[in-house]
């Protein structure tokens, strides 16, 4: 007979903070976080050293989850690099149209965390670098002449679509970003694509 293990205080704090900071922003109070997690204040300091440490770990966990989602979206599109990249923008269109969409967690964090030395900024920066590198790898397979720069351009379009999806959703920003992405990707049209990966 198996017994179900309830999540401990650390896990409950992460779960509550991940939800509450997305719904209400990084300024959500410590008391609300503790209440949402159902833990004592002591647990926050024991596991994270305070709210800044908790926020940083939430960003780190969210970044790992979102990077995995990018990979799953691209893998579901097949082997063609162009289709894999454009699938990202199709998926963004679905996300921004969904109930409860509040914008990009990472943009919101960077704007809300006023201290430039807050460790959360390093997490968001490294996350964006990994996503841009993911795009660049596909662009290199297409034979793009400047895959790293084009990967950064696609990331800029992603950031813009996610931001506009929260502020101007009626404009269908993901479709506009996809159209621009086709132009970035199309710069590789005169070079033969690399062989698909095994």
UniProtKB/TrEMBL annotation:
Residues 29-48 bind DNA. The keyword Transcription regulation applies. The lineage of its organism: Bacteria, Bacillati, Actinomycetota, Actinomycetes, Kitasatosporales. One of its GO terms (molecular function) is DNA binding. InterPro entries: Homeodomain-like_sf, HTH_TetR, Tet_transcr_reg_TetR-rel_C_sf. The keyword DNA-binding applies. Residues 7-66 form the HTH tetR-type domain. This is TetR family transcriptional regulator. It comes from the Bacteria. Pfam families: TetR_N. Gene3D superfamilies: Tetracycline Repressor, domain 2. It comes from Kitasatospora phosalacinea. Keywords: DNA-binding, Transcription, Transcription regulation.
């Amino acid at each position: 007979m198996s017994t179900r293990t309830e999540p401990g205080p650390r896990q409950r704090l992460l779960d509550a903070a991940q939800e509450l900071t997305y719904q209400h922003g990084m300024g959500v109070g410590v008391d609300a976080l503790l209440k949402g997690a159902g833990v004592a204040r002591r647990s926050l300091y024991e596991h994270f050293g305070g709210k800044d440490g908790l926020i940083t770990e939430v960003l780190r966990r969210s970044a790992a989850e979102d990077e995995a989602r990018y990979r799953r979206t691209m893998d579901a599109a097949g082997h063609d690099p162009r289709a894999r990249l454009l699938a990202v923008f199709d998926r963004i269109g679905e996300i921004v149209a969904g109930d409860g969409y509040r914008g990009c967690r990472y943009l919101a964090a960077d704007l809300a965390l006023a201290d430039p030395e807050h460790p959360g900024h390093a997490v968001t920066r490294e996350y964006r670098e990994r996503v841009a590198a993911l795009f660049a790898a596909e662009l290199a397979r297409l034979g793009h002449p400047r895959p790293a720069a084009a990967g950064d351009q696609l990331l800029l379009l992603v950031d813009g679509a996610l931001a506009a999806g929260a502020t101007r959703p009626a404009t269908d920003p993901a479709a506009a970003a996809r159209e621009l992405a086709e132009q970035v990707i199309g710069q590789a049209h005169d070079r033969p694509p690399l062989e698909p990966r095994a």
